[in-house]
């Protein structure tokens, strides 16, 4: 079981990961956009952490997810704000009144998160976006069924992220680059992978080798 306190801990870990990888994400974005994706994600997740600080006594999973969504949306003005907000709103929706998640619930949580983002943004696999990370992760969890397999889902997410290096951007500002967008991992795909990795490492710690 993942208690509400465990979920909050994972969310704080996601904040830390975005701060740690801010410069890397900005460097990726310099090749495809304004070069500020890392800063944007860092700002958004710092706002999430501030919201969590105010939710110290809150144990309702859906309430926590709603507040995370609103904090990120209010802090981030770019298109990524509504996407992540929708993801967290959809992820928390099935768990109103619940104070803990079973392993099966975590599977449901991440499938709903990915589906919410895909539906809101309209991008598909192959468009060179965060969907290339999230959709394979969700597909793995959906096909596997049952309890949450973070290791397998993370491998699927990483493979999807890496695939964006070979892709030409079809949506968003980077699509204006045409073939010049090929050769760089999409920063949104990278940040989505790093966030999911931080979550997995928090709830299913793995031995470091």
Structure, explained:
With 209 residues, the protein is mostly helical. 66% of the residues lie in helices and 2% in strands. The chain has a two-stranded antiparallel ribbon. Helix 1 crosses helix 9 (187-203). The chain is globular. The chain starts with a strand and ends in a 6-residue tail after the last helix.
Write the layout of secondary structure elements.
Layout lengths: L1 E2 H17 L1 H11 L4 H17 L7 H15 L4 H13 L7 E2 L1 H19 L9 H14 L5 H14 L23 H17 L6
Antiparallel strand pairs: 1-2
Helix pairs in contact: 1-3, 1-9, 2-3, 2-9, 3-4, 4-5, 5-6, 6-7, 7-8, 7-9, 8-9
Major β-sheet strand ordering: 1-2
Number of strands: 2
Mean pLDDT: 92
Question: What is the makeup of the main sheet?
Answer: 2 strands, antiparallel
Strand content: under 5%
Distance between the termini: 26 Å
H-E string: EHHHHHEHHHH
Count of discrete alpha- or pi-helical segments spanning 4 or more residues: 9
Q: Quick one: overall form? A: globular
Which regions are unreliable across 5 or more consecutive residues at pLDDT < 50?
none
Structural class, from helix and strand content?
mainly alpha
Measured on Cα atoms, how large is the radius of gyration? Answer: 16 Å
Helicity range:
55-70%
Oligomer: single chain
């Amino acid at each position: 079981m993942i208690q509400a306190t465990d979920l909050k801990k994972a969310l704080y870990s996601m904040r830390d990961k975005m701060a740690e990888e801010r410069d890397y994400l900005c460097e990726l974005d310099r090749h495809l956009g304004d070069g500020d994706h890392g800063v944007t994600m860092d700002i958004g997740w710092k706002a999430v952490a501030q919201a969590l600080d105010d939710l110290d006594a809150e144990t309702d999973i859906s309430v926590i997810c709603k507040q995370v969504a609103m904090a990120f949306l209010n802090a981030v003005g770019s298109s990524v704000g509504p996407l992540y907000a929708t993801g967290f709103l959809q992820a928390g929706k099935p768990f109103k009144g619940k104070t803990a998640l079973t392993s099966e619930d975590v599977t449901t949580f991440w499938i709903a998160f990915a589906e919410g983002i895909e539906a809101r943004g309209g991008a598909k696999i192959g468009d060179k976006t965060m969907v290339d990370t999230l959709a394979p992760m969700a597909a793995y969890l959906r096909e596997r069924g049952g309890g949450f397999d973070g290791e397998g889902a993370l491998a699927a997410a990483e493979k999807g992220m890496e695939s964006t290096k070979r892709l030409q951007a079809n949506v968003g500002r980077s699509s204006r680059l045409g073939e010049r967008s090929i050769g760089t991992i999409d920063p949104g795909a990278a940040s989505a992978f790093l966030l999911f990795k931080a979550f997995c490492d928090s709830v299913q710690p793995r031995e470091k080798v």
